[in-house]
Amino acid sequence: MGAMTIEAMGLANLTHKVVVGIADMAVSNNATVTLATHALGSCIGVSVFDPVARVGGLLHYMLPVCSIDMAKAKSQPQMFGDSGIAALFRSAYDLGAQKHRMILCAAGGAQVMDASGVFNIGRRNYDILKQIAQEHGLKITGEHVGGTVSRTMYLQVGNGEVRIRISGQAEEIILCKQLKNS
Prior knowledge:
Elements: E1 16-20, E2 24-28, E3 33-40, E4 44-50, E5 55-61, H1 70-75, H2 81-94, E6 103-108, H3 121-135, E7 140-145, E8 151-156, E9 162-166, E10 172-176
Parallel strand pairs: 1-3, 6-7
Antiparallel strand pairs: 2-5, 3-8, 4-5, 4-6, 8-9, 9-10
């Protein structure tokens, strides 16, 4: 007897989580997927969702601009805000998303391991996202950025809901509400 498909086992509608690591991203049009990324300290998590195409993506970038290490940017563009955001949008477009329908959310950008604020990586990471959004006529719909806490971010691809959990707190915060009729 051959391997059974998920559908044949009656599991097609079960949700599953895809973890996006640091300096990585994932994009999906599978309504059963929840994308998640952890340890958003000074890093930024950016979610995109097209409610018509039902395509969602999540990026976890570490540094604002790729010009500091072009070799690394070529091999791992998701490490940087400028190249990672571009890669996230291109991947969403490949699955049918369109820029004018995209809903953006962001989390992270905290001041961690830099008590004196010399480097301000978190703020600079958030600033590059705001700059790119403005240059492309995009609005950040929901955000939870800054402070000194680490966050976990979730995107439910089936309905576009974005939630975050702050380190040390049990309750989740909804950044973008789910779509009706999902």
